[in-house]
Amino acid sequence: MGNVVIDVMLKPEILDPQGQAVNGALPRLGFDQFTDVRQGKRFLLTVDGEVTDEVLEAARKAAETLLSNPVIEDVVSVRAEQDVDASRAEQDEKDPGR
Amino acid sequence: MGNVVIDVMLKPEILDPQGQAVNGALPRLGFDQFTDVRQGKRFLLTVDGEVTDEVLEAARKAAETLLSNPVIEDVVSVRAEQDVDASRAEQDEKDPGR
Amino acid sequence: MKVGVVTFPGSLDDRDAARAVRAVGGEPVSLWHGDADLRGVDAVILPGGFSYGDYLRCGAIARFAPVMDQLVPAAKGGLPVLGICNGFQVLTESHLLPGALIRNDHRKFNCVDTRLRVENAQTAWTSDFEQGQEITIVLKNGEGGFVADERTLDELEGEGRVVFRYVVPEGGRNPNGSYRHIAGITNERGNVVGLMPHPEHCVEEGYGPSLDGLPFFTSILKQVVNA
Amino acid sequence: MSTSTASSSTGHVPHVDTVGNAGATPDHEQPWLELGLKEDEYQRIRDILDRRPTSAELAMYSVMWSEHCSYKSSKVHFKHFADNTTEEMREKLLVGIGENAGVVDIGDGWAVTFKVESHNHPSYVEPYQGAATGVGGIVRDIMSMGARPIAVMDPLRFGNLNHPDTQRVLPGVVAGVGGYGNCLGLPNIGGEVVFDDCYQGNPLVNALCVGAMRREDIHLAKASGAGNKVILFGAKTGGDGIGGVSVLASETFEEGGPAKRPAVQVGDPFAEKVLIECCLDLYKAKVVDGIQDLGGAGLSCATSELASNGDGGMQVELDLVPLRDASLRPEEILMSESQERMMAVVEPAKLDEFMEICRRWDVEATVIGEVTEGDHLVITWHGEVIVDVPPRSVAHDGPVYHRPLERPAYLDSLQENATGSLAKPTTGDELKADLLTLLASPNLCDKSWVTDQYDRYVLGNTALAMPDDSGVVRVDEETGRGVAVSTDCNGRFAKLDPYAGAQLALAEAYRNVATVGATPLAITDCLNFGSPEDTGVMWQFEQAVMGIAEGCRELGVPVTGGNVSFYNQTGDVAIHPTPVIGVLGVMDDVARRTPSGWKTPGQVIYLLGTTRDELDGGEWAHVRHGHLGGRPPKVDLAAERLLGEILVNASRDGLVDAAHDLSDGGLAVALAEATMRNGVGARVWLDAVCERDGIDAFTALFSESTARVVVAVPRSEEVRFTDMCTARGQVHARIGVVDDQTDGIDVQGQFAVTLDELREAHTRTLPAVFGE
Ligand SMILES: Nc1ncnc2c1ncn2[C@@H]1O[C@H](COP(=O)(O)OP(=O)(O)O)[C@@H](O)[C@H]1O
Ligand SMILES: [Mg+2]
C-alpha cells in the first residue's frame, strides 16, 4: 500500500481569510515570531500497490483537475508519501527537544 | 525570510466527509487507481529571519494548541519549508514527463 | 435572574439568545469576548454564529478569548452554561465538553426544522422537559457532526450524558452525520450543556417552527431561583 | 490602526506618471484601447483636463466610464422612470434613484432600504467567490445608507439542469450565497432558481439586500466640510479584481511586467460581519458625516463619488492606503476591488471616537486624506500629484450613448408561432400526468436542495420565507411592523414581448407581496440583458424599462433603484431579456401574514381572477413541448391592484387563512403546492370556472393568466369574504374545500393524485442531479 501526498495552497495574490484569522490569533497566544500565515489543503491518496510513476502522474492530473481550483489555487507539490516521512524523521532528529 | 510548514490530518478513525467526497468523485473522472482519500490542512507560517530551532519549537506548540484539535486531529509534521522544496525538486526530477 | 450572553466577533444569534431569555422573564446581560469579566451573571449562553468566521476550526479561536479565561473555571465550578451551535463548538474546543463537531457528512450547510428526543431531563437546562419528550427545534449549521472515540461515546451514554438525540427512522440518517445520532450532551455535573440545534429560534409564536425552545430558558430560571 | 502606516512601499519610490509629467509629455502613447475606452472618450478626457491624463487618471476614468459604472448605454432610458413618477409615488420615497440604494418610509418613523444587484460574470468564472462577493457587495450598499441589513434574497438563473457545466456553477453559487450570507447573520428569505438553455454561458446571479433604520439615521455618500477627514476602513487593499488594469502598471514599470494580479475577488464574510457591527456602532455614536462603500471600481469610485456629491474638493494620499500586497502600483490601488472596505468622512473633533470604535471591533482604519476648499480631487503618491481632476467629470459626467435600437426581425414569426397547435392532454389521466411532469420539471420542482443551505431564521424576525410567496421580516420588535419582499421575472415572457414581460415580472412580484398580506410600496430592479451594441437587445431594453416605468405608475409604486447588467451573451446569442423585479411591501404586524399552504379542514377554496386561454410562453409549453412562441399572458394592472387590495384587507380582517399566487404552471401547480405545504388535502371542482370563463379543464389547470390567486377561507368568514369581493367587483369562484380525508388532491371528474405522488414528483429532481 502506498500513499501520495498532494499539497494545494491559495495563490499568493489571493486573499486567505483563514490564514489571516490564524495570523491574528497567534500573537494573542504569545506566538509573536510569525509574520504571516497561509492555510492550504493536504490530500493523502492511497493506492493498493506501489506508487509508480503512472500513479504519480494520475495524482498530478487529479490534483490539477479536481483537487485544486486553478483560478485561485496552486498545486504546490505531488509526491510519494515516503518523502514526507523522510523529511519528518530528519526534522525530528534536528530537534531532539521535542 | 523563512517558512515553517505544518501538516494536520484528521485521525484515521474520524469520519472525513471531504476526503470521502473526493474519493467518490475520482473514479467518475477516470481515476480508479486510488483506494482512499483523506483531506487535511497545511499551514505555512512565515518568520522574518531564519527558521531556528526556537522557531520550530514555537511552531510545534502552536500546532498542538491552536492549529489542531487533539480530539480529532494529528499534527503529522512540522518542518522548515526547505525540506518540501527539496523533496519537490527531487520528485520533479524523478518524473520528467510532467 | 441574570443570564450572560457572550458576543465574540462573528457571533450571530446573540441577540436572539437575549430575546429568549427576556421571553421567560430573565434579564440578559451581554458579555464581551475581550473582557475577562462575567459581570456577576447566574448563567451563561454561548450563542450561535461564526466566531472568527469559523476559520481554522469552529470555535477554535474563540476558545482563547479573555472572557473564556473566566468562564472555563466558573463552569467547572458549577456555573450553568449553554452552548448553542457555535457555542457548543466553543465548549468542545475548550474541553468543557468531550468530542468535537466536524463538517456535516453531506458537506453542505443545512437549515431544517428537526425532531429531537430529550434523553436527559435532569440538566440545568432541560429540567422543564419530560424525559423522552420529542420536540421540534431549528437546526442550521455546516459543521454539526458530533464525533468522539468509542470509549467517550460509551461513557457519555453510560452516564446519561447524551441530552438530545435526532429522531431518525430505524436505519435512517441524521441531518449531519453525528455519531449515534447525538445532538447535544452535558458534562458530569449537568450544568454545562451543548447542542447543535437552536432553541432560541423556537420561543415566539409566528417566528419559528415551534415554542419548544422555551423550556430551556424556563429550566434555567427555576434552577437559579431554587439554587 | 493609525493615521500613518508603513505598509506601503518603503524607501525606493519607483517612477510614477505625475500630473507634471503628463503636462510635459503630451504625446506619450497611452493604452486607452486596452482599458476599454473609445477614441472619442479618450479625447474627451484630454479635453476635460486640457492635457493628457496621467496613468492613474486614465485608470480612474476608464473604470468609471465603463458600462458597469457609468450606465452609459442605459442612462438615457432612465428618463422613463422619472417621467412616470407621480407625486403620490414620490411621497413614499425618502431617498430615490441615484444614491447607493433607495429608501422608503414604512411608517412609525421607520425607513427601509433595499436593492438588487448582479454579479453574473464573476460567478461564472468562480462560482463560489463570485456569488459570495455579490452578496457582500449589495450588503455594503445597504450599510452605506445608515441601515442595519436585515435580510437577503438571491434570484438565480442557470443553463440546462443536465448540462455538466451547470453542475459546476450551481452548487458553487449556492454555497457562495449561503457561505457569505449565513456567516453575516442575515436571513435569506427568498429568491428564484430558474433553468433555461439561454443562460448556459451566462448564468445570472442577482443578490438583493434589505436594511432598516430610523428615519433620522439615513446617511448619504458625500464629502462636505473642508478639513474633515477621509478614512478608509475595513480590509486591506490587495490586487483583487484588477485583471486588465495591469497593463497600466506595466507601463510605469521600468523593468519587467507587474506581478500576476487576480481577476477574481475573494470574500471574507467574517471581516464584513465585523464591519457591519462596527458601522452600526459608528452611526449610533453619530461620528460619521458621509459614507460610501467600496464596490466596483474601488477607491476610484468611492473618492470621486464622495467628492462630487459634496460641496468641496478632496485630497488623498494614496501611499497611506494599507496594502495586502506591497507591490501594488498606484493605478492598481485605485482600481482594486478588494472586498470588505468602506470610506467615511469624519469631522476632526470626532476622529478619536471613530478610531476607538474601530479598534473595539479590530477594524483597521486609516486617515488617507481630507475634504478641501477647492473643487478638485487631488491624489498624491509619496508627495507627487498623480491625479488632479474635477470629480464630477469622473463620477457623473461620463459618456452617454443613444445606442441605435430596432425591433428584432425574428419577433413576428416568434409571436405567430403560438401554442394553439400543440397536442394537449384531454383525459383525466393525461392531465394528471402533465401535472406530475410539471411538478418534477427543473423550474417548478422543490428548491429545498438550494434553500436549505441558507439560514432563514437568524435575527429571529423571519415571519415567512421559502417556499412561501414572499419573504416577510419584522422590523419593529415592539409593534411587529415589518416588510415583505418578492423577486420575480419570467424571461420567456420577456423574450416574446419585453414590454409586457417586464410588466408581468412586476405584476407577479407585486401579487406575491400582496398575497402574504402586505401593501406593496416600492420596487427595485436588476435588468439583465445581452449586448447593448446589438440593436435588438437595446430595443428589448428600452421596451422593458418603459414597461416597468409605466407599470409602476399604474400600480402607484416608485422605483427606488436597481442595476443594469449588459453583455450577458455568448457570441451573438443573448440571454432572454431578464428584468428581475423586487417588490417591497409593508405590514403593520407581520405576525398576521398569510402563509401559502392550507391547514384547516373544511375551509373553502376560492379562485380569485379570470382564467383565459393563455399558455404561450408558459411552463406547460416549455416542459411538455420545449416550445416558446406566441404572446405572453395579458397584463392587467388594474386587476392586480384590485386583487392586491382584496388580499391585504382579507389578511387584516382575518378573512383568509392561506393564499397562494398563481404563476408558473397555473392553477394545477398552485393547488399542488398549497396541498404539499402542510400535507393537507383538498377536493376541487372546475366546472363553474370553465363555464364562466369559457375554457376547458386543461386551460383551467395550466393557463398562466395573471391577477389570480387561490385562498382558503374559514367557513365563518365566507359571507364577509364573498360580500367584499362582490362589492369591489373582484371576480371570484368557489372551487374547492380543504379536506384532510382526501389524500392529496381530488379534481372532481378529472383525476385524483395522492400526496405521495405529488411529493415524489416534486422533491426528487435537484437531489437526483446534485446529490442528497
Ligand atoms: N435562490 C433562492 N433563494 C431563496 N429562496 C428561493 C430561491 N429560489 C426559490 N426560492 C423560494 O422558493 C419559493 C418558490 O419559488 P418560486 O416558485 O420562484 O416562487 P414564485 O413562483 O411564487 O415566485 C419562494 O418562496 C422563493 O422565494
Ligand atoms: Mg408565488
TrEMBL record, chains A, B:
The keyword Ribonucleoprotein does not apply. InterPro entries: PurS, PurS-like_sf. GO terms for biological process: 'de novo' IMP biosynthetic process. Pathway: Purine metabolism; IMP biosynthesis via de novo pathway; 5-amino-1-(5-phospho-D-ribosyl)imidazole from N(2)-formyl-N(1)-(5-phospho-D-ribosyl)glycinamide: step 1/2. Its EC number is 6.3.5.3. Its main location: cytoplasm. GO terms for molecular function: ATP binding; phosphoribosylformylglycinamidine synthase activity. It is found in: Cytoplasm. Keywords: ATP-binding, Cytoplasm, Ligase, Nucleotide-binding, Purine biosynthesis. One of its GO terms (cellular component) is cytoplasm. It catalyses: N(2)-formyl-N(1)-(5-phospho-beta-D-ribosyl)glycinamide + L-glutamine + ATP + H2O = 2-formamido-N(1)-(5-O-phospho-beta-D-ribosyl)acetamidine + L-glutamate + ADP + phosphate + H(+). Gene3D superfamilies: Phosphoribosylformylglycinamidine synthase subunit PurS (3.30.1280.10). Part of the phosphoribosylformylglycinamidine synthase complex involved in the purines biosynthetic pathway. Catalyzes the ATP-dependent conversion of formylglycinamide ribonucleotide (FGAR) and glutamine to yield formylglycinamidine ribonucleotide (FGAM) and glutamate. The FGAM synthase complex is composed of three subunits. PurQ produces an ammonia molecule by converting glutamine to glutamate. PurL transfers the ammonia molecule to FGAR to form FGAM in an ATP-dependent manner. Belongs to the PurS family. Part of the FGAM synthase complex composed of 1 PurL, 1 PurQ and 2 PurS subunits. This is Phosphoribosylformylglycinamidine synthase subunit PurS. It comes from Pedococcus cremeus. The gene is purS.
From TrEMBL, chain C:
It holds the Pfam family GATase_5. It catalyses: L-glutamine + H2O = L-glutamate + NH4(+); N(2)-formyl-N(1)-(5-phospho-beta-D-ribosyl)glycinamide + L-glutamine + ATP + H2O = 2-formamido-N(1)-(5-O-phospho-beta-D-ribosyl)acetamidine + L-glutamate + ADP + phosphate + H(+). The active site is at C85, H198, E200. GO terms for biological process: 'de novo' IMP biosynthetic process. SMART domains: GATase_5 (SM01211). The keyword Cell division does not apply. Coiled coil: none annotated. SUPFAM superfamilies: Class I glutamine amidotransferase-like (SSF52317). Its main location: cytoplasm. Pathway: Purine metabolism; IMP biosynthesis via de novo pathway; 5-amino-1-(5-phospho-D-ribosyl)imidazole from N(2)-formyl-N(1)-(5-phospho-D-ribosyl)glycinamide: step 1/2. Part of the phosphoribosylformylglycinamidine synthase complex involved in the purines biosynthetic pathway. Catalyzes the ATP-dependent conversion of formylglycinamide ribonucleotide (FGAR) and glutamine to yield formylglycinamidine ribonucleotide (FGAM) and glutamate. The FGAM synthase complex is composed of three subunits. PurQ produces an ammonia molecule by converting glutamine to glutamate. PurL transfers the ammonia molecule to FGAR to form FGAM in an ATP-dependent manner. This is Phosphoribosylformylglycinamidine synthase subunit PurQ. It comes from Pedococcus cremeus. The lineage of its organism: Bacteria, Bacillati, Actinomycetota, Actinomycetes, Micrococcales.
From TrEMBL, chain D:
It is an enzyme of class 6 (ligase). Pathway: Purine metabolism; IMP biosynthesis via de novo pathway; 5-amino-1-(5-phospho-D-ribosyl)imidazole from N(2)-formyl-N(1)-(5-phospho-D-ribosyl)glycinamide: step 1/2. Residues 32-72 form the Phosphoribosylformylglycinamidine synthase linker domain. This is Phosphoribosylformylglycinamidine synthase subunit PurL. The lineage of its organism: Bacteria, Bacillati, Actinomycetota, Actinomycetes, Micrococcales. Part of the phosphoribosylformylglycinamidine synthase complex involved in the purines biosynthetic pathway. Catalyzes the ATP-dependent conversion of formylglycinamide ribonucleotide (FGAR) and glutamine to yield formylglycinamidine ribonucleotide (FGAM) and glutamate. The FGAM synthase complex is composed of three subunits. PurQ produces an ammonia molecule by converting glutamine to glutamate. PurL transfers the ammonia molecule to FGAR to form FGAM in an ATP-dependent manner. The active site is at H68, H119 (proton acceptor). Mg(2+) 2 binds at D141, D293. It comes from Pedococcus cremeus. Belongs to the FGAMS family. Substrate binds at S118, H119, N120, H121, R140, Q265, E337, S338, Q339, S565. Its main location: cytoplasm. GO terms for cellular component: cytoplasm. Residues 1-11 have a biased composition (Polar residues). InterPro entries: PRibForGlyAmidine_synth_PurL, PurL_linker, PurM-like_C_dom, PurM-like_C_sf, PurM-like_N, PurM-like_N_sf. Its EC number is 6.3.5.3. ATP binds at Y71, K115, D525, G562. It catalyses: N(2)-formyl-N(1)-(5-phospho-beta-D-ribosyl)glycinamide + L-glutamine + ATP + H2O = 2-formamido-N(1)-(5-O-phospho-beta-D-ribosyl)acetamidine + L-glutamate + ADP + phosphate + H(+). Monomer. Part of the FGAM synthase complex composed of 1 PurL, 1 PurQ and 2 PurS subunits. It is found in: Cytoplasm. Keywords: ATP-binding, Cytoplasm, Ligase, Magnesium, Metal-binding, Nucleotide-binding, Purine biosynthesis. Residues 1-30 are annotated as: Disordered. The keyword Ligase applies. PANTHER family: PHOSPHORIBOSYLFORMYLGLYCINAMIDINE SYNTHASE SUBUNIT PURL (PTHR43555:SF1). GO terms for biological process: 'de novo' IMP biosynthetic process. Mg(2+) 1 binds at E117, N563. It comes from the Bacteria. One of its GO terms (molecular function) is magnesium ion binding.
